[in-house]
TrEMBL record:
Domain of life: Bacteria
Molecular function terms from GO: ATP hydrolysis activity
SUPFAM superfamilies attached to this UniProt entry: P-loop containing nucleoside triphosphate hydrolases
Species per Swiss-Prot/TrEMBL record: Pigmentiphaga litoralis
Protein's recorded name: Pilus assembly protein CpaF
UniProt cross-references to PANTHER family, sorted A to Z: TWITCHING MOTILITY PROTEIN PILT (PTHR30486), TYPE II_IV SECRETION SYSTEM ATPASE (PTHR30486:SF15)
Extent of Gly residues compositional bias: 441-451
Signal sequence range: none
Length: 451
């Protein structure tokens, strides 16, 4: 009993010990034999009934085998086995935690979790790689997706809207690699992003008018920078009378709009048979009478179909793209168009891009985990055979006198060039050349008043 007393005052430590996993594995074998005796009847039990069954059986197992654990440790083993039989084992608490954004598993004993943009290692672990695979296959089973040596990589959408990516041997060298991206059940509204400090009032007003007046917007940023959340928020500005078609590789967008048609690509079966690409879906979406087309992420040949949609009457369309700056975003579009087999001249391609896009909104995740719009640039046309842009807002951080790091957005005092916003120009206030820099917080006054 000495060993059990050693962990009695530290429940977390016991859960992370090998002894906990040994006791749990032995009790699990006992439960499986009892479940086999019950047969089909067990499959009809509620979670409450399963929990009661596990509590009784584990208690009996511990007493009969004289397992040296105390009452607190017994409850922890029972709780873990209930999650194992009726839920998703060690993953269950993480997936239920609203603060968790990403769960990254590099083998059974190496789990990392992202909360508020900060990645940290968790003390949680699985018994072994087989245990991890068993839980992953339980997630995939109702989705109809295979995971084995012949199909060692899978990307799937979870029922709650999250995304699961798994790579196993022989592709993954150090055990199963599992990546789970969670999404909020209630998408962030523009007001929420304003409160969180993603942008300021002037940017909020600019984006709201730009979306309502059907400007084509590309949201650019790195991995986990908040592109999807920002795109969801922008949809709040789309008039309710319009029909929006979303096209995604894995459906992640959750637009708060009454008339949304969601399309998701499909991976091919054996030898790629039956595959439906994003490019196929964008082409088909144009036959569905959309007012706007929203592409979850542009990363391949579909860039040409997106540009065609923006240039052929589907103004107000939006998309996200992986890039580190607005200028790099435009270069990336050119590169993707080359992959798509674009046959025209470089000048012709750049004119298509310049005529399709109105704004590039750059968003980034800072070192402290905060997500901020770092730049808003307008695409103004062509000049000297390059796509001309003008930056309207630029983000910078500064240290206040009290030593606290704060945000501000520098308004460059330039009126938007697009004629779509021409009727709002009387609401713009141009700062005088000798005007002081904007005050802390970014209230530099790009817009003198709201719409």
């Amino acid at each position: 009993m000495t060993a059990s007393i050693e962990f009695a005052d530290d429940g977390v430590a016991f859960v992370n010990t090998q002894r906990f996993h040994d006791v749990k594995a032995a009790a699990h074998e006992h439960l499986l034999s009892r479940i086999e005796e019950l047969g089909a009847e067990f499959g009809r039990w509620s979670r409450a009934a399963i929990q009661q069954f596990v509590d009784l059986e584990v208690d009996s197992f511990v007493r009969l085998r004289r397992v040296p654990i105390n009452e607190s440790e017994l409850r922890q083993v029972s709780a873990a086995l209930t999650k194992e039989l009726a839920g998703l084992g060690p993953l269950e608490d993480l997936l239920a935690d609203a603060a968790v954004e990403d769960v990254l598993i590099n083998g059974y004993d190496n789990v990392f979790v992202s909360r508020r943009g900060i990645l940290a290692k968790e003390s949680l672990r699985f018994s072994d790689n087989n245990h991890l695979l068993r839980i992953v296959r339980r997630i995939l089973a109702p989705l109809g997706r295979r995971l084995d040596e012949s199909s060692p990589m899978v990307d799937a959408r979870l029922p709650d809207g999250g995304r699961l990516n798994v790579v196993i041997e022989p592709l993954a060298v150090d055990g199963p690699m599992v990546s789970i991206r969670k999404f909020r059940k209630d998408p962030l509204k523009p007001a929420d992003l304003l409160t969180l400090g993603t942008f300021n009032e002037e940017i909020h007003r600019l984006l709201s008018v730009a979306v309502r007046e059907r400007c084509n917007i590309l949201v650019s940023g790195g991995t986990s920078s908040g592109k999807t959340s920002l795109l969801n928020a922008l949809a709040f500005f789309v008039p309710e009378t319009e029909r929006v078609v979303t096209v995604e590789d894995t459906a992640e967008l959750s637009l708060n709009h009454p008339h949304v048609v969601r399309l998701e690509s499909r991976q091919g079966g054996f030898e790629g048979a039956g595959a439906v690409t994003i490019r196929d879906l964008i082409r088909n979406s144009l036959r569905m009478r959309p007012d706007r087309v929203v592409v979850g992420e542009v990363r391949g040949p579909e860039v040409m179909d997106m540009l065609q949609a923006m240039n052929t009457g589907h103004e107000g369309s939006m998309a996200t793209i992986h890039a580190n700056s607005p200028r790099e975003c435009l270069y990336r579009i050119e590169m993707l168009a080359g992959f798509a087999g674009f046959q025209g001249s470089e000048d012709s391609l750049r004119r298509q891009i310049a005529s399709a896009l109105d704004f590039v909104v750059q968003i980034g995740r800072l070192s402290n985990g905060r997500r901020r719009i770092t730049s808003i640039s307008e695409v103004t046309g062509m000049g000297d055979n390059v796509i001309a842009t003008q930056e309207l807002f630029r983000y910078e951080s500064f240290i206040a006198p009290d030593g606290e790091e704060k945000d501000r957005w520098i308004s460059l005092g330039i009126h938007p060039h697009t004629p779509k916003l021409a009727k709002y120009r009387d609401q713009l206030r141009m700062p005088t050349p000798d005007a002081p820099p904007p005050a802390a917080g970014g209230n530099g006054g790009f817009w003198s008043r709201g719409r």
